[in-house]
Amino acid sequence: MVNVIGLGYIGLPTTLMMASHGVEIIGTDLNKELVATLNAAKTTFKEVGLDELFADALKAGVKFTTEYQVTDTYIVSVPTPYDKFSKKVDAKYVVAAVKQILGICPKGATIVIESTVSPGTIDKFIRPVVEESGFKIGKDINLVHAPERIIPGNMVYELLHNNRTIGADDREIGEKIKEIYATFCQGEIVVTSIRTAEMTKVVENTFRAVNIAFANELAKICRHDDMDVYEIIKICNMHPRVNILQPGPGVGGHCISVDPWFLVGDYPTLQRLLMSL
Ligand SMILES: NC(=O)c1ccc[n+]([C@@H]2O[C@H](COP(=O)([O-])OP(=O)(O)OC[C@H]3O[C@@H](n4cnc5c(N)ncnc54)[C@H](O)[C@@H]3O)[C@@H](O)[C@H]2O)c1
Questions:
Q1: Which pLDDT tens digit goes with each residue over 212-256?
Q2: What is d(CA 191, CA 175) in angstroms, rounded to the nearest whole number?
Q3: pLDDT tens digits, 43-79
Q4: Which of 78, 150, 163 for mutating ligand 1's site (highest number of atoms within 8 Å of CB)?
Q5: What is the pairing mode between strands 2-5 and 164-168?
Q6: Cα(37)–Cα(64) distance, rounded to whole angstroms?
Q7: Angle between the 268-275 and 194-224 helix axes, to the nearest 10 degrees?
């Protein structure tokens, strides 16, 4: 049985998706009101296809609670904001969730961190917590990182169709977790190391941030010099190896505006690049 920890924007649809594809699953959240709303068969936000998915999951027996469950597989999907001053990841929610899991889980359990983290977070913050609890990683507790890629507004479709990355210390454990995601995910699921999975997630969103910034800077230059940025981009994109994005209002949400800081935190050269965007 899978216990998803954190039933927000990512944890809830993931829980519903797994439930409606035959996975025995219980969702846990500390927010009593949120759990009461879900138990009253009401969704907590709007997304295309979410109500239908919720109805399917309810039929399949999905459950919501404020209690952590005793089970063999946990998926942690709690917030990972950045520290206001250093802009480095604030891992306190993930650490708190892992500590609570360690307080009740049996030996042999697997903890999947789905929350976005900066490269090295699992080594720096999660492994010490596991070891301090007296568990041996790889023997008593398995760690996995399975970052999420969906775009708000089209998340149900993207949960079903996006490719995914699973980082694990142990290939066999990675493959076992892959089987759970593969119940609903029609994309390719790559199994790799935890460090690589952490890195790919923030590199992807940094790539997006840099390219969005480039298109927007181009728009500013063209406006200043009275040129048509859309025509220029259209012509440039006729080049076989150029694909400039369309200018827009900038990055939104809390992924692309935050995750690049998780990448540059320990790399000053990249930090300077990001500051100049
Ligand atoms: N929202 C997105 O579009 C998106 C996309 C990809 C990745 N992510 C990442 O997914 C993670 C979760 O983001 P989200 O948008 O779902 O956040 P969210 O704020 O919508 O939901 C997080 C939930 O976790 C609960 N929670 C916090 N601490 C808890 C604990 N110790 N035990 C149980 N529940 C706890 C909160 O009550 C909340 O309901 C973050 O790391 C985020 O960066 C988000």
A1: 999 999 999 999 999 999 999 999 999 999 999 999 988 877 789
A2: 7
A3: 999 999 999 999 999 999 999 999 999 999 999 999 9
A4: 78
A5: unpaired
A6: 10
A7: 30
- What are the chain's domains? 2-194 (3.40.50.720), 200-275 (1.10.1040.10)
- Tell me how far the alpha carbon of residue 117 lies from the centroid of ligand 1, in angstroms: 12
Angle ∠(184,186,188) on CA atoms, nearest 5: 120
Give whole-number Cα distances, 25 to 57, 75, 117, 186, in Å.
Answer: 10, 10, 24, 20
What is d(CA 219, CA 246) in angstroms, rounded to the nearest whole number? Answer: 9
**Distance of alpha carbon 247 from alpha carbon 270, whole angstroms:** 23
Take atom 18 of ligand 1 and give the residue whose Cα is closest: 8
Compute, in angstroms, the gap from residue 83 CA to the centroid of ligand 1: 16
